[in-house]
Design goal:
Layout (H helix, E strand, L loop, with lengths): L4 H4 L3 E7 L2 E8 L4 E5 L1 H5 L15 E4 L4 H4 L5 H11 L6 H8 L8 E5 L14 E2 L6 H11 L4 H8 L3 H8 L7 H11 L1 E2 L10
Parallel strand pairs: 6-7
Antiparallel strand pairs: 1-2, 1-5, 2-3, 3-4
Helix pairs in contact: 7-8, 7-9
Length: 200
């Protein structure tokens, strides 16, 4: 079966909670998993959710589901039985987390579905504002490098193609606001619209 380009970069999102408090969010597409700490959680002194997720790093990326999150799921026959009863795909680890780690897990960490009403992630690590659109691409590149992300990484986190990221950083593209927002969100930038006052 041939994988569609749109499916390859389609991104899924879920909240990660620590004792009911939003600690961050988990992103996934068919190529990568990403965990990002919530900025308010960091500012308010929340603890790292696990040894492998120190807060100072803020963004974590992996080709496979992080072992910590895999540990929140049942294993072996227990997992097989649960999947049969709930008609879940045992190979879709992201969906299993959303379905099986919502309320009761071994520790304090739970994973909640991000509903359609909450798909816009409001809490992003170290929010910044872009006021000068002329050097937008340069600012995106600087922020990406600050988090030690490649263009491929940012593309997979944003749900766009690497070529889109590259052309925007080079200032050779005039992207739609929806595409631009997808790229800016994981980097901690805020996109807002302001009405221009026209004086007659």
């Amino acid at each position: 079966m041939i994988e569609k380009e749109s499916d390859r970069f389609k991104i899924r999102k879920a909240w990660v909670l620590n004792n009911g408090e939003t600690a961050g969010y988990l992103l996934a597409n068919k190529r990568r998993f990403v965990f990002i700490y919530d900025s308010d959680y960091i500012v308010n002194g929340g603890n790292s959710i696990a040894i492998g997720f120190p807060k100072k790093q803020r963004i974590f990326s992996s080709r496979h589901l992080f072992p910590f999150f895999s540990g929140l799921l049942p294993e072996g026959e227990n997992l097989a039985y649960t999947c049969r009863c709930l008609k879940l795909d045992p190979t879709d680890k992201f969906n299993l987390l959303q379905e099986l780690a919502q309320h009761e897990t071994i520790g304090a960490i739970t994973v909640q579905k991000m509903t359609a009403e909450k798909t816009h992630i409001a809490h992003i690590p170290h929010k910044q504002e872009i006021s000068n659109t002329q050097n937008l691409g340069e600012q995106i590149a600087q922020r990406r490098k600050y988090f030690k992300l490649s263009q491929q990484d940012l593309a997979e986190m944003s749900g766009v193609s690497p070529r889109t990221v590259s052309t925007i950083e080079k200032g050779k593209a005039n992207p739609r606001l929806s595409i631009l927002s997808k790229i800016l969100e994981p980097l901690g930038f805020v996109t807002t619209l302001q009405e221009r006052v026209i004086h007659e």
